[in-house]
């Protein structure tokens, strides 16, 4: 089996560029690497992504949002992540389960036990081997995120929403300190990359 590494954090935390750096490093070491993202990662889930991230905040109910996120994840896992893990690849995924817990759970106020239940129902016992939580205050992240206006449905939410999401991520990291590693992302890209290397160190030694 391969390894599933997920990148999490609020808006503008630099996840995508750190994911690309790690992929470059792992490929340089001769490992087979698959990079992907959520919501999205396969054509079907990318179509759902457009519904989820475009448009206006109030365009769908929280329940619809949750079910579309889950539907996208089911197909993404079935079509991309599970086959890659079976082949022994390292899968680097930009957002996964913890985004659902932080955004739909802590941000929207949906019941966390229910979210865990739906995740298990939809996907079985699939958890990342390691989760890198790139942490940056939302005031800074929202400013530095270079997202196109087209994909800004979540960004248009209030600062209070983004603060709840950040606190949610912190609570998740405190509950699962073995899996989720908190990385201070308010530093230079090189410093963040170095911290990520440390946070993954034990995974390299046995794979
Ligand atoms: P991105 O910032 O990585 O492009 O992700 C798009 C948005 O989707 C981001 O604002 C967070 C949100 N999101 C959720 O609300 N729940 C989820 O489960 C996932 C995967 C993403």
Describe the secondary-structure layout.
Elements: E1 3-9, H1 15-28, E2 33-37, H2 43-53, H3 62-86, E3 90-94, H4 97-107, H5 112-123, E4 130-135, H6 138-144, H7 159-175, E5 180-184, H8 189-205
Parallel strand pairs: 1-3, 1-4, 2-3, 4-5
Helix pairs in contact: 1-8, 2-3, 3-5, 4-5, 4-7
Bound molecules: thymidine-5'-phosphate (TMP).
What order do the SSEs take from the amino end to the carboxyl end, as H and E? Answer: EHEHHEHHEHHEH
Structural class: alpha/beta
Q: How many domains comprise the coordinates?
A: 1
Strand order of the largest sheet: 2-3-1-4-5
How far apart the termini lie comes to 10 Å
Please explain how this structure is put together:
- There is one protein chain.
- With 207 residues, this protein is of the alpha/beta class.
- It has one domain (3-206): Rossmann fold, CATH 3.40.50.
- Helix content is 55%, strand content 14%.
- The chain has eight helices and five strands, in the order βαβααβααβααβα.
- The protein has helices at 15-28, 43-53, 62-86, 97-107, 112-123, 138-144, 159-175, 189-205; strands at 3-9, 33-37, 90-94, 130-135, 180-184.
- It has a five-stranded parallel β-sheet, with helices on both faces.
- Helix 2 (43-53) runs antiparallel to helix 3 (62-86).
- The longest helix is centred in the middle third of the chain and has 25 residues, at 62-86.
- It is globular.
- The structure holds thymidine-5'-phosphate (TMP).
- Thymidine-5'-phosphate is lined by residues 11, 38-39, 53, 69, 94-95, 99-100, 103-104, 154.
